[in-house]
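pls read this protein:
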Amino acid sequence: MVFALAGNQNSGKTTLFNQLTGSNQHVGNFPGVTVDKKEGIIRDHHTGEHHRGPRSWGHPRHKRADIPPKEQATVVDLPGIYSLSPYTSEEIVTRDFLIKEKPDGIINIVDATNIERNLYLTMQLIDLGIPMVVALNMMDEMRANGSTVDVNRLEEELGVPVVPISAAKNEGIDELIEHALRAAEHKERPRRQDFCTGAVHRCVHGIAHMIEDHAQAAGVPPYFAAAKLVEGDEPMTRQLALTQNECELIEHSVKEMETELGTDREAALADMRYSFIEKLCAETVVKSGESREHARSVAIDRILTGKYLAIPLFLAIMFLIFWLTFGVIGSFLSDLLTAGIDALTAAADAGLTAYGINPVVHSLLIDGVFAGVGSVLSFLPIIVTLFFFLSLLEDSGYMARVAFVMDKLLRKIGLSGRSFVPMLIGFGCSVPAIMAARTLSSDRDRKMTILLTPFCSCSAKLPIYAVFTAAFFPRYGALVMILLYVMGIAIGIVWALLMKNTLYKGNPVPFVMELPNYRLPSPKSVGLLVWDKAKDFLTRAFTIIFVATIIIWFLQSFDTRLNVVADSSASLLAGLGRIIAPIFAPLGFTDWRAATALITGFSAKEAVVSTLAVLTGTNVANLGGALAAIFTPLQAFSFLTFTLLYTPCVAAIAAVRREMRSGRAAVCVALMQCAIAWVCALAVYQVGSLFIG
């Protein structure tokens, strides 16, 4: 069996998915965490005990559903949406899956604390006629606020099973699984599909009869198809392959409805649905007033999102995070790990020497693997510390506020505040950030965001920044870090203004996003995000960087005749480096080792550090001293500028190709970024030379 998990953004969908499947997908307290559908196997719940949480708060419990025969069931976590209209990428992904893949059942998660808005999607899902169960989430918060829901009445009016749950606390999950499996096994379709009255009723049902044969041929429920045609849904019109005469008859029916109601077609259906929802909630929901969470959030927002304090406070918070990461906690932990790696390297070196192993193999292990991979691993604490603080901000709900605060500024460069979320993810990794751009409804906004995201310095560049700032700017490490991030943002803004007035003329789409209530960060959610980043870092260290390190060691250790060289300047790598070094000479760094490190950075940015460690024949603790022989402080900052701006990695370019559906576009993006990086690094070095002499 296959179940679709559908619901509004930020309704707890990913949390419920994790509870259903036992997986550990990232959960964030801002809309748009799920940018594509994910699937997992529903966990085995056929044990001796089932969750015995209340069926409803203050209402009699239904007789427990019979447990269907044990079988494997898959649940697909769909992107969060507010309707089944094909306006955004999330809506298209969800709608296509529900109509074309025809799941055995739908699990519709509804936020009980905001039930009126959530039920709008529920009514459209019911129109599909697929076996369905409503998971009424966050009932613990509703109960804490003194509010109640008449679950039995709600179930009766909607015509589908309604199960109260708390996904965050794992309450009601077993009962939800039972009802979902039972509904799918017995093909229990919604008992009610007609929510319309009056002129809307006559119009929708008249069109449903007219297109019934087309709908059956297309595999779409006639009533759902009719409602979409009334809304003016063009993809549905194409899918049904209607004749010109039929289209004219439909338009005539819609015009009659609009004339009778005195409103347009979309508003007529929306009014009909919301009228039903208001009446239903008045009969089933008892609220004690404004929730404590909402009142608290409004009070906090008066300060954090105020007209004058919002941006200064955001910058102050980010400065504090950078200072703690690079100046206090992260650097301290990194120094400890570096000492451990150095001790392990020394022990391995002594052991291999005592064993009398072949000198070439000895060099491979110590000068290659330990120097390369070990130099990158020492920066793991910095990555973990940074993302620990960022995950606290995200999980608390603050990052969603920052998106709104940034909307006004982003509009000046041709984007909406919604682009801030992918760009924010870009500070972690460019690949998921580029994928997250698909949540933008406008093709123009999506492409502009994809082109700008690489200017947000990803975490893979942190080891490079850390090494160079420690070596050349030890007293101003945090300040240099912030300067690099601000520089990337500033150059991205300039590039956005150029695109806004040339390639992508036009206005950004209106920005609408629900602000979640502030919540205490979940230790599990924070831990999962930090572990995800650490795992990604370790995976790259022991795969891409490991391979790159061995290749660099080989090219550095042998000449063109494959003889072992005593001096690396006579190696294959030196020859290749000297060929490309003139390209970077105007930028200040003429040493072939610097040029070679930048080339290996195309595979993964962490490889720049490991390459320099291998080429200088030193470990992380002594790498700063070795770099001082290659760079002056000005040359080092020019090198950092180029590193900041040039192509993130091969994986990011592959993501651009996939999202823009064009290999040429991906190549152009890579060349464009390299050109911008070269020009900016040239400006930094040449202008700096005028002052430093």
Q: What stands out?
A: Strands lie at 2-7, 38-41, 74-77, 105-111, 132-137, 148-149, 162-164, 285-286. Residues 28-33, 45-70 have pLDDT under 50 and may be disordered. The longest helix spans residues 310-355. The first strand starts at residue 2 and ends at 7.
